[in-house]
Amino acid sequence: MLKVSELLKMDCFTVKNLPEGGGDREIGSIYCCDLLSIAMSKMTEAAAWVTVMSNLNTLAVASLSDVACVVLAEGVAVEEAMLQKAVQQEITVLWTELPIFDAALKIQKAFEA
Amino acid sequence: MSDSIKMTYTVSDTDFTRAGEASSDVKKRLRQMGCDPEVIRKVAIAMYEGEINMVIHANGGEIEVEITPEDITMVLKDKGPGIPDIEKAMQAGYSTAPENVRALGFGAGMGLPNMKKYSDEMNIETTVGVGTTVTMKVHQ
Fold first, then answer.
1. Do A53 and B105 make contact, defined as CB atoms within 8 angstroms?
2. How far apart are CA A14 and CA A33, in angstroms?
3. Is B43 near chain A, with CB under 8 Å?
4. Is the ipTM of this complex over 0.90?
5. Where in the sequence is the domain holding A31, given as residue range(s)?
6. Which residues sit opposite B8 in a β-bridge?
7. Where are the domains of chain B?
8. Residue B103: its chain A contacts at CB < 8 A?
9. What would the pLDDT profile of B45-89 be if each residue is shown by its tens digit?
10. CATH fold for the domain made of B5-139
11. What residues of A are in contact with residue B93 (Cβ under 8 Å)?
């Protein structure tokens, strides 16, 4: 099983928020989608969710779906209010300059390693 | 879980940043009660979609939640514009959400379809110009 902490070791991902025990979460699947209703209905628990949708609603969906981590791709801007909410809701948020597909592929390769 | 528990939440008018607080709170409570995770997931998704709909279309409203050992009932009441064509609104992909809402990742036309999909029973009472009441039940 791949733990979130393995992603933290990779150069391409920057940590935006890491709650206590966040690194120990096991990643159950990788999921890519920016439309929140679709993501919420399809994502399975403990997903690593790769998206460019960087707002408070992203975190609401992440929390309700109980994801292992949110990976914000394409170097999207992350507002302070979002970071505060991530801290408050104890959601692991990573950030990368990579496009969604490439970011997901990196995680997939770590899965297979 | 022996007795029934009732909760009431106010959904604020256009504040997207607060949408999800009610469903998040219900989720937390169900977890503490040791509910089946799949039941919790269904309730959380159905209710969050409902909350978002109330913010997008109806200037907010009120949600009453009742938890019994048999089921979880959510009653979402708003004084919004009502739904002129329920059949159309229930179609996956059909959306009347404005552009600014779509930019936030909503408006995929999945709100009501998701609410129907994740609740075991759903009833919509709506009158154009008066408001909408959606009742959803998820069996334990």
1. yes
2. 20
3. no
4. no
5. 2-112
6. B64
7. 5-139
8. none
9. 999 999 999 999 999 999 999 999 999 999 999 999 999 999 999
10. Heat Shock Protein 90 (3.30.565)
11. none
